[in-house]
Design a protein that fits this description.
With 181 residues, this protein is α/β, with parallel strands linked by helices. It is built from 6 helices and 7 strands. The strands form 2 sheets. It has a 5-stranded mixed beta sheet. A two-stranded antiparallel sheet has the order 1-2. α2 runs parallel beside α5. It starts with 5 loop residues before the first strand and ends in a 10-residue tail after the last helix.
């Protein structure tokens, strides 16, 4: 990590390093601190942009475990909690960009403020530390189903929901190889 980058330690993983202008640690932000009571929030937002393509906003949530889809009665609750965190993070960002949270003016990095709201796309990303790959598809399917109305309403890509373990997150350069102790 260089001084020009930031990392975020969550759920036994080190996310990053990221350029600070492309990462907004929304869970630790002033706008969230102001509304925290009763509002669940994703960990952070990450802007990724490829030349010639619209900006991609990644709404990232990290977990150290999850209930098994078929065997655990808490699975439905788990899915609703992740969904709620993702939607709240997106809503707080958009409300901040619209000036509804004045504290965000000093915290939001420039590229977030310059986001073309008519063109950007979203990836709702869940990273589960230590999870077997075979357990990921049922979680992703359940999350896609629960977010279908949001994805359709906003005209996000059908691939907007992504569930990864730490191995896949490392391949996508979301986390670094040196793990959090």
């Amino acid at each position: 990590m260089t001084p020009e980058t930031i990392t975020i330690d969550e759920s036994g993983m080190t996310f990053g390093p990221y350029p600070p202008e492309h990462c907004f640690y929304i869970e630790k932000s002033l706008p969230y601190t102001d509304i925290r009571q009763g509002v669940k929030m994703a960990e952070f937002l990450l802007l990724r942009a490829d030349i010639g393509r619209p900006a991609m906003l990644w709404v990232v949530e990290a977990k150290s475990s999850s209930p098994r889809p078929k065997n655990d009665p808490d699975f439905g609750q788990f899915i609703m909690e992740i969904r709620e965190k993702w939607i709240n993070a997106l809503a707080l960002l958009l409300a901040s960009l619209l000036g509804r949270h004045r504290q965000a003016e000093t915290e939001l990095p420039g590229p977030f403020k310059a986001l073309d709201l008519s063109q950007f796309d979203v990836r709702f990303v869940l990273v589960i530390n230590g999870h077997p790959k075979g357990w990921l598809p049922p979680i992703q399917d359940a999350l896609r189903q629960s977010l279908r109305p949001v994805v359709k309403t906003w005209r996000f890509a059908p691939t907007s929901v992504v569930v990864l373990n730490e191995e896949l997150a490392l391949k996508r350069q979301l986390i670094s190889a040196n793990r959090q102790p």
